[in-house]
Amino acid sequence: MRLPACLAERSFPNYALFADAVGLKTGGKMRQLLDLAWDMLQKDVADAAIPQLLSKLETLCPPNVDEYDAYGVYPAFDFCQLLEQALLNRLNPNKHRATEASQLATRTVMDFVEMSEGEGLDENELVRVFEHHPLLKDDKLFQRDTVMALKKQRTPKEAFLLNSEPVPPTTVSATWESPWKADIRQPSYTACNLPQYFIERNES
Length: 204
Fold this sequence. Notes:
It is a single chain. 59% of the residues lie in helices and 0% in strands. It is mainly α. The chain has one domain (2-196): YP_001051499.1 domain like (YP_001051499.1 fold like). It starts with a helix and ends in a 41-residue tail after the last helix.
């Protein structure tokens, strides 16, 4: 569950921004649930606890993305799926979910790029945008560096979680100074995270 947990951590601000924008007031509870997922990397947790956490996750996630007239619901829901992958991998470690989580995290960035810059482009033009877009390059770099760091320590200890220093990707908003710290669990508004002005759909 290590890579899915890292990708969920990186995506958490997407959920937090959306929850705050629509007044859900569930960001704190989701933060606690994500912290519990991290704790499972260092502590023995009974398998019976995982279904309870999955049930809690279901109550905190948007039940129907179509109910919200805001783009931010989609990356928020993607975060929920990443955290679900991390928890399910802990429950069934024989089924490796890292590839699925990696593809989902990249898709979040691709969807954002298509939404913000893909209007009027045909399929070939959109593919070229994806190939050269800095946010997708940042996503690829982040995932590569994370996988390399995790391979160096097969079972992350507390010191690894607190001292890892992945390369901070470029933020979407040029006006936002990333709060990325050495703690890999520190929420950071990174390449896959959406600035506030994309939370609500542009009606013009």
